[in-house]
Amino acid sequence: MTKMVKPLILITNDDGISSPGIRMLINQMNSLGDVVVVAPNSPQSGMGHAITINDSLRCDIISIDSGSQKEYSCSGTPVDCIKLGVHEILDRKPDLIVSGVNHGSNASVNVIYSGTMAAAIEGSMQGVPSIGFSLLDYSWEADFTEAEEYVLEIASKVLKNGLPNGICLNVNIPKMSNKKCNGIKICRQTIGKWIEDFDKRIDPNGKSYYWMTGAFKDQDGSDQSDIWALNEKYVSIVPVKFDLTAHESLIDITKILGL
Amino acid sequence: MTKMVKPLILITNDDGISSPGIRMLINQMNSLGDVVVVAPNSPQSGMGHAITINDSLRCDIISIDSGSQKEYSCSGTPVDCIKLGVHEILDRKPDLIVSGVNHGSNASVNVIYSGTMAAAIEGSMQGVPSIGFSLLDYSWEADFTEAEEYVLEIASKVLKNGLPNGICLNVNIPKMSNKKCNGIKICRQTIGKWIEDFDKRIDPNGKSYYWMTGAFKDQDGSDQSDIWALNEKYVSIVPVKFDLTAHESLIDITKILGL
Fold first, then answer.
1. Do residues B242 and A87 make contact, with C-beta atoms less than 8 angstroms apart?
2. What phi, psi does A151 have (nearest 5°)?
3. Average pLDDT, chain B
4. Using CB atoms, which residue from A127, A198, A250 is nearest to B87?
5. Residue ranges of chain A with per-residue pLDDT less than 70
6. pLDDT at B1
7. What's the pLDDT at B2?
């Protein structure tokens, strides 16, 4: 008789190890395999692909709830957590890396600022099929229950079928509030940008400081874009790659530089 | 008679406002236009596309040397500096954004971890022609003089001819040490990855901590790749885009998910 080896699943996020979004993700992944969590000990939203170069890292075993997962609380960024998990904590390469579930959208250009998605991108750089999940609700008390079936379905299929080399998935789930979601759409990243506004204030010592705020401007509107799909109450999935080369512009750049 | 308006150039980096690399860049750009520097007040290497969400920002006018530039020292990340520069400090949209000159390579996947390149990518997201410059020498005392002509040439041509929408340039310059560089090559991002190694130590209180180290593994070797060009003593230029969608995988993903 051969012993069945269960899939090994590494989990992280950027909202911190105790956030409701990652607790739901852990709970769902426990039904699919052996789960190891290596997640930040504090919120790391907006950390993008930051890594800790000039400081050391803490990574301590921790127990938060009664699930079958093993958990490590880490002082670093989401990308640090993936690197630590893959190269130090785990004794074999994981079969799947999942990140999230993020409290808030990572659609359109948010993918670039997102620690949740950076962790999934780092997973694909490590050669592991990886998915970042986000729910379009920024609140700590967001209701993740209606997202569970999509998280489980998408993770199961990626675990079974794998992903193309160098590609991870950016999955965003609309806020549903009792209405059923319309299904899943494979999309591209919406063309759009944040237009920042800086709120300038004076501290009690008479010195100025700023709070960054901003508004997102959708410059796309195509029915192939992730924000369109989310507005229509579909779960959006964008395949994301870490080869940033603009292959289609190589010849243009040669001309621009007169080479 | 009409008054000639000089080009407006915004400069940042990730090594900090007082680093030799940015001082060289400022000096060169002063010959091309009106220069405004908004750069981090401390080293921000490896910060990727991180932004400051949960804290306020300081941004104070400062004078470091005798050049004609205006300078602001900022408490945030390189991407924060670009957002502050474009939306708060400058009174019109800049004609060019340049970042660097980084002390050390940003070739291959380093582009994703680099604060220098994140600033250039953010520049392109703001609709401004943007370039990140890096010299393949990590030391603070790196000799930037032989890189000057390439920085000036590439910046001049981009200022004159612009760049395609959504594209910035990742320029890496080999360490030359008296031998002339062989010229400029337009390249793609080398396929490769960092394999991390964690140096585990015990602190005086008996608790463990880690230092992240690693070795880069080139999995490419093509003469179209940036690391190949740099090894052959060419300046490498990779056009970089912020649309992370793997357009070529949209159909594959539909099949993998059984949609």
1. no
2. -60, -45
3. 96
4. A198
5. 1-3
6. 55
7. 62
State the pLDDT confidence band at B227, using cuts at 50, 70 and 90: very high
The distance of B41 to chain A (nearest Cα, Å) reads 14
Q: What does pTM read for this prediction?
A: 0.96
Residue B90 predicted with pLDDT over 60: yes
Domains and their CATH numbers in chain A: 8-191+221-256 (3.40.1210.10)
Q: Give the 3-state DSSP-derived string for A169-185, with helices as H, strands as E and coil as C.
A: EEEEECCCCCCCCCCEE
Which of B84-95 are b and which e, b meaning 16 or more Cβ less than 10 Å from the residue's Cβ? bbbbbbbeeebb
In chain B, the residue whose alpha carbon lies closest to the alpha carbon of A154 is B257
Top residue of A140, A167, A210, A216 to mutate, by most chain B CBs within 10 Å, is A210
**Residue B249 token pair:** 């995988």
Decide: B124 and B238 in contact? Cβ < 8 Å: no
A237 half-sphere exposure, CB direction, 13 A CA radius: 27
- The tens digit of pLDDT for each residue in A1-25 reads 566 789 999 999 999 999 999 999 9
Average pLDDT (B217-240) is 96
A115, two tokens: 């620690």
Contact, B245 vs A239, CB < 8 A?
Answer: yes
List the single residue in A with minimal CA-CA distance to B254. Answer: A186
What are the strands of the beta sheet with A235-241, ordered from one edge? A59-62, A70-74, A34-40, A8-12, A96-103, A130-135, A167-173, A235-241, A184-186
